[in-house]
């Protein structure tokens, strides 16, 4: 298949990321993926896997693990979701995104297998996940780092057997927030743990830790007890961190990412890679990997004068982290503006409060360009209810132009709320 044909085929499939209320999907099962993998010859059995779940920090942690493993001389596969600009971004080998030609070819291989057997009606995410797992086998990767799409136990990625199973944290996302939601979410995320896995657990809540340990991993290391951030200081272009793991202490390492939460992600990433090797990592490998890691769309500057900062914060924990980082890491003499778009499945006023919308000169709301996009008018009402000043501009491109028409060179424009909006601004940044 050509890339365009592959995208057209995917667009015709059921996509739980795109339909309204994507977090409320009934009848989830990994059985279709098990069957698809059998059709393809079990490609996911040909390499070891580090499997990563959690409410926030998965993408950043995967990027750091990828960099550390590449620094140790291994050829990696990495599977991430969602994407910002191109679906191909989800599949990486050797530290590089798959080419569009190769993406089209491997999607075509999966589709041919499905058509030949005609027993499974694969979804969008199952098809892309199968393509990633097949591509990693074709490329003979030494290890694959796989990010869960949603929760864990019934996620399509959970056909893999994790040598190392990582959980970043447990927060409110893909949930109604009713009852003991923390335990319910923890139980779903714990489903990636195998009896042969080493568990690297970033969640410290003493009520939740036993839920993960009860899955019976072969070995478990837990944040706060076995690994942690010792020191985290602001530095030009990122953070200067000292990190403690079960096997070493890494002092004064430059982390080229903004936000205190990234130091937390780094401690988990290093610990996971240590557990993969069963040994401490060379200091120069850690320094080079963390100093050069890039996470697109996560506190990423794409323009100066005025500055435009992109952040994919889309739930309350992510919004809190963004607000804290803006306070702690960035100082500028100008005003602060916000471009905000969101998708269905969130509570807009909760995220607006977490973002501290009242601290912005103006919030311009837009309608995210997906079937789940919350209308700009509804978002503007939420901003005002949270104490902010808002203008509603439905179209994303028109919304950023509206802001640029008011911002001066020393002002800051933050773009946040959902990947489709952040991805669109990222794709047109050079034209702004």
Structural description of this entry:
- The chain has 432 residues and is of the alpha/beta class.
- 37% of the residues lie in helices and 19% in strands.
- It contains 14 helices and 17 strands.
- It is globular and about 55 Å long.
Helix/strand layout:
Layout: H1 3-11, H2 31-39, E1 49-53, H3 58-71, E2 76-79, E3 91-93, E4 96-97, H4 100-117, H5 124-138, E5 143-147, E6 162-167, H6 181-189, E7 198-201, H7 209-213, E8 219-222, E9 228-235, E10 238-244, E11 249-255, H8 260-277, H9 283-292, E12 298-303, E13 307-311, H10 316-329, E14 336-340, H11 348-355, E15 362-365, H12 376-385, E16 390-392, H13 396-404, E17 412-416, H14 419-428
Helix pairs in contact: 1-4, 3-8, 3-9, 4-5, 10-11, 11-12
Brief characterization of the structure:
With 432 residues, the protein is of the alpha/beta class.
Helical content class = 25-40%
E-strand count: 17
**CATH class (first level) name of the largest domain:** Alpha Beta
What share of the residues does DSSP label as strand, in percent?
15-25%
Strand order of the largest sheet: 4-3-2-5-1-6-7-8
- Briefly note the structural class of the backbone: alpha/beta
Number of domains: 2
CATH architecture of the largest domain: 3-Layer(aba) Sandwich
Terminal CA distance reads: 34 Å
**Number of helical stretches of at least 4 residues:** 14
Radius of gyration: 21 Å
Looking at this structure, what is the CATH superfamily of the largest domain?
Answer: Mur-like, catalytic domain
Q: What fold name stands as the CATH topology of the largest domain? A: UDP-N-acetylmuramoyl-L-alanine:D-glutamate ligase
User: Uncertain runs with pLDDT below 50, 5 residues or more?
Assistant: none
Mean pLDDT value: 94
Specify the overall morphology.
globular
Largest sheet: 8 strands, mixed
